[in-house]
Here is the input.
Amino acid sequence: MLTEVTSLERIKEEEILKQNKALEENYFIRVLLNSSPDIIIIINKQRQIVLVNDKFLLFLELDDEKTILGKRPGEAIGCIHARETPGGCNTTKFCLYCGAFHAILNTQKSEKKSSEECRITTDNGNALNLQIWTTPFEVNQENFIIFAVRDISHEKYRHFIERIFFHDILNLAAGLHGIMELMPELNEEEIKEFLKEGVNLSRQLIEEIKFQKALLQAEKGELNISLAEVNVSNILSHLSALYKKHDVARGKIINPPIINGDTIIYTDQTILSRILSNLIKNALEASEPGQTITISYKKNQEGISFSVHNETEIPENIKLQIFNRSFSTKGGEGRGLGTYSVKLLTERYLKGKIFFRSTKEEGTTFTIKL
Here is the structure.
């Protein structure tokens, strides 16, 4: 627990108001705060908010700061984990991997400036990529920290497009080009096989482009859903067959679901297919050659659930960040949009829930409930 590292102590409202007044009456502090294009929050040594600039009030859609004085930054922003323990923001197990928490802690320990990246998912489902700067200063012999915040979500997404998406698209296009170049030298039987491979590569190429387009629309709230009767067996049979031929499945075993007759549900077939496709691809990427992934579903009076299981356990540090935007389960320059996109599409658009269980003995299972 982080309570071993950070204090639960908070000062009372009257003390917060005294600190707020002392800073508010300092003309230069107020001018400097509101001259910044970034969000600026001043916190005390208990990590409570004592003053903010107009940019932060605009971000929160508030007229004044009274309702957030005394809160910690994550509580004011609406971090989904901020209320999971009595100590609030900075005291949950998820805070161990929070850049904002580490920036504050580094500055309190060293009394020097610090900077960290921070990924936050808010209560209303927004996924934020933030750059945090913390700077210590003193007023009336009291220690405070300037907590500066810049939204870098667009930069992170541009980085993804430039480094990852283009890389994947070029790989698929290069494979397709290679097949076309070899065609004149092949005999009739070889041509038939290469045509099958070419069709498979072109399908992957189209699906990758469609998925990124859909994700952009989903994040903007512009993705249209089309509800209709959907045959579950058709979707799962198609995806099982598709991924058996996928590069990521080489040397791995896919156990398709046991299908007993037609199961009909009312949902958006395209979105559901993208969600399940992502879960299957993630499971295959997490598996070693010779390992098995299993696809299953269960329908009852409460609805329907789909599960994708692989034999590998997810490390603890990844479990605590897995649905964060731009976080990669692969380390380094990974995609960082797989599980995030699944959660976004499942919960915001299909009004379902996603959860996972991962242990050394049982491996990992992701489940969506609709």
